[in-house]
Design goal:
The chain has about 350 residues and is of the alpha+beta class. Helix content is about 35%, strand content about 25%. The chain contains 10 helices and 20 strands. The strands form 6 sheets. The chain has a 6-stranded mixed β-sheet. It has a 4-stranded mixed β-sheet with strand order 8-9-12-20, covered by helices on one side. The longest helix is centred in the middle third of the chain and has 24 residues.
């Protein structure tokens, strides 16, 4: 994937920021399109950029990165001398940093050793990453399809002799076999009464009758997918069907409501009101939506406490749930691409209640 140096540079100019220092792996990848476990990037408002990286990655980065100078970083204090020389050479006096991820010790070293004033710059990257390009969207759709195919294969393999851990491990293997680089987060796979725990961990117990909730995602091309499906293990009770139908209606209402510029609290409320009207309001215990992309949770977020709107081009989850402690839980999650006309649901899995192991 090509990097986004020009986008970052343009945004810096709009915000009146002279230059930005990027130290986190996720934003380093966003800026350069190059994945590594080390390296710092400086992007200037004038359009110049440099990746300072050690010998482990220097040759590969030099051959792949476009739009930024690749500099072999030196060790110890000499490294800060390199950074200082670059900043001085470009007339930089105020340098923005990622205040949400830069450690205190890292901040103090930059503050002490660089001839600049450090200022906050996280919002520049958050705002840019919240809006996905068509290329990013295509990669994310591919990640979704890999995960979906693996999930459908898993459903055909599940038996009551399989443990939750075994099923989660098999899903991970199936995603890898279908082309994933890795899972995009630790799979949530819980059954029976444990399905009432929204972020429950797979246990070393056999899959229990009742609901089986599976929250899973594939990592592909550096981008994440995210999906949750709840299926019935054995014939569901009337109450189980009623709760499932309520969650599904809430999710459909939110997807129907979704549009560029919507207020995050109103988006959350479009699903939450359906659940509340059905008498289960107190059992929807988390937010409706988060953005995803390079990270599984990124801007924008939509909850009862949200401030701000969801921009056109955002890729966000829609995941209402109802969790009845000690009984069962249901969550249904799709991922949508927000457009000026509404949204595109990029998840392609059945949402009607599936019954397995009857």
């Amino acid at each position: 994937m090509r990097g986004n140096i020009s986008k970052i540079s343009g945004k810096l100019g709009e915000e009146g920021i002279e230059a930005l220092l990027i130290t986190s792996g996720e934003n380093r990848f966003y800026a350069t399109g190059f994945r590594s476990t080390a390296g710092d990037v400086i992007v200037t408002a004038s359009g110049d950029a440099a990746l300072f990286i050690d010998a482990r990655y220097f040759e590969e980065a030099s051959s792949l990165i476009q739009g930024a100078q690749v500099v072999l970083s030196e060790a110890g204090d000499k490294y800060y001398t390199q950074l200082a020389a670059y900043l001085t050479g470009h007339g930089i006096r105020r340098l923005a940093v990622e205040e949400d991820t830069l450690t205190y010790s890292g901040y103090m070293k930059f503050k002490d050793k660089l001839p600049v004033e450090l200022v906050p710059g996280q919002k520049v990257l958050n705002d840019l990453r919240a809006v996905k390009s068509r290329q990013e969207l295509e990669i994310m759709v591919k990640a979704q399809r890999i995960a979906e195919k693996a999930f459908e294969q898993l459903l055909s393999e599940i038996t009551l002799d399989m443990t939750e851990k075994e099923a989660a491990s098999e899903l991970h293997c199936l995603m890898l076999k279908n082309g994933a680089e890795d899972k995009s987060f630790d799979t949530i796979l819980v059954s029976g009464a444990q399905s009432s725990v929204p972020h429950g961990k797979p246990r070393d117990v056999k899959i229990e009758r009742g609901f089986l909730t599976v929250d899973f995602g594939a990592l592909y091309g550096g981008y994440c997918s995210d999906t949750t499906r709840t299926v019935a293990v054995g014939e569901p009770t009337e109450e189980m069907r009623r709760v499932y139908d309520t969650v599904l209606r809430a999710q459909k209402a939110a997807i129907e409501f979704a549009h560029a510029g919507m207020d995050g609290r109103e988006f959350d409320g479009s699903a939450r009101s359906v659940i509340a009207d059905a008498g289960y309001g107190e059992y929807f215990t988390h937010s409706l939506s988060h953005g995803l992309g390079i990270e599984i949770h990124e801007q924008p977020f939509s909850s009862v406490r949200s401030e701000g709107s969801v921009p056109e081009g955002a890729v966000v989850s829609v995941e209402p749930g109802i969790y009845l402690p000690g009984k069962f839980g249901v969550r249904i999650e799709d991922v949508i691409y927000v457009t000026g006309q509404g949204c595109e649901d990029i998840t392609n899995l059945n949402k009607e209640l599936i019954v397995i192991c009857p």
